Amino acid sequence: MSKFLEIPNCALTPMGLHKEALNYSLNAFRETLRYIDSLEYPQRNLKGKEKEFSQFLIDKSNGMLRMYGSAEDLLENVKIYKSFPEHHNCFGSSNEPYQTRPNIYKSLKNENYIAKSDVFVFLQNMILTLFLETSGEECPPSLVFLFAFYLKSRQESMEKCVEYVKFDEKIFEELNNKIIEKVRSAQFSSAKHQELVGEFSKLTLPQIIEKFKRLIPSTLTPNQELILTLHFGNFITGLPARERNEGIAMSYSVASKTLKSLEAVIDENLEMFSPRRQDSKQPITVRVFEDGDQRFVMEEEFKKSIHEKCEGVNDTLIRNTISMENVRSKYKQKIADIEFIRYPITRAKHRATPIQGPSGHTYIPAVDLFFEMMREVILGMRIFQRIKPVHLPMFVQDFNEFSKILYETESPYFIQNDKNIMFAMRIISDSPAKDVRNAKSDGFTVQNLKNELAHLGLTAIFPEIQNYVEKVYSEVDKRKKSDVLRTCDLFDAIEQCQLNCILEILPKLKKFVHSQKGCHRVYGWKCEECAAETPENQDDQKLSILEKELEELKIAHQKILDENQQKSLEIQELQQKNLRLSVKNETNEFKLKQLTDKLAQSKLSIDEGNYSNACTSQLKIQCLICEKSIESGKDQIIRCPLCKRRFHSKCANNWLKEHTECPACNGDLPKF
Fold this sequence. Notes:
alpha+beta; 4 domains; four-stranded mixed β-sheet; four-stranded antiparallel β-sheet; 13 strands; coiled coil; zinc; Znf_RING
């Protein structure tokens, strides 16, 4: 089934990657990137050309994407950033086929699960793979988009659903087989095909396209209408005139039977494709977020699963969490039927991977929102290159407004990231900010970094900034991905130097960063509270990690024991079956010998020579119970009246203490 995890070549589009890169970049850069002309895109099929397309975006960005490194760096980070269920809703890619490989998650019981929304991606991959295997050609764009729009219309009921379903490869293989079976059974007859050819010959191009659109029962958006009109128009006008009606009819036949097959498969398996019903036998699923040594659930999601009201969720901006320790201690009696899905919090270099919330919005940890906002202020808006020292107190006053949502608390929490929460900055000079210069081919030195900070005017607003240079430089050098420090590393160093200065003048945010375990993400930062942590606390943390690991090992060990027990039973069954087959074979050999002896007595020759064979050689009679030979005249025996098989009488009596049937033929074996 792994082949259906991968997105087929024909579904990957430049527009999809463009929108993903657009969302990954800073808000200040998006206006320039948004208006890159799609007519300049490379060829439509993007498979194998992602790196080339990333370089295309960098070249068209007017230098704005230099901070993201090479095309390979940008692509790698975008792949991490976009890897979450229903990412197309977050990135505005609803008018593209599914672009992202589904993730398989482990539960705390070590079972595989997949997001229900990602099962639709599986269906897309299945039908596009089927098209390739049956026709020998990739599915044309017109049908790729038609199938994608149908699946996304069916997925609308899942918009606010963050449920998961067990990923059983056998079940998904059955889904694929059902699609194949239904597509084959829905073949148009020759008469129906000719009828379609005749019908299309009488229709205009807009009427033909409209007929294809009507295969999707739901209402299409204006953009979807436009996309289908464009792709079907290109497909139809590209057909040779003599074969046009025949090709249109064939394409319509494929589209019709494929969509009907998808509809049937979804309707027959609604538990996989719709929110869980109250009477469902499927387990309730709740995500357990894992971030370093922390494990926690989203409060709203968890309380919904146990039918408790979650206070203070009218505002969708902030989502609180509950640690797994508290879940187990406080709600022990209510979680027996819940399957907890392990959900690692992942981060690309410049952004955290968004997380679906029960409300339909996407969220990121509050500490990640802080670092992303700082990057926006430092490198996007370049505020500290544009204001004068006299205005710094007013900036601090404005920025303290963030303490309303970035507050000190030991519990991690999430903040909605698809909402603009940047507070107004009152002091922004009209003077243009200088651009960061490119690093030299052999990298840059500590002195080069100091010179660049002065060149950008940052030493005026932060006279102490040079004090952080050496430590920041050392940390950037440790993390570099190339042999030498590059321009993207210079951007990192400039950002981190400013971040050190900002935390020194914003004590509330400094406490917030510490409480959310973010101090280590500030290069060269010396946190007094981190330094004051006692060895006992560190030992407690290590013990907590070891206890969690031990718990996971116990669960995994129990699963292995269960699997071994099941395999032992299967081996026993196979041994019994093999034993019976051996007896049957021996019985057949004995009968064959008797027939051969009769033939010899009748003086019938076989191939004019002596017939010799393993089957006709002298057979040793063996007790089937102890598997030892029965010596004629010496051993007392018992014979089965049905199959005439002989056994040692002692073996038979012991056998009959626990059984009543003959071990050879399963007939009744009398007691003697």
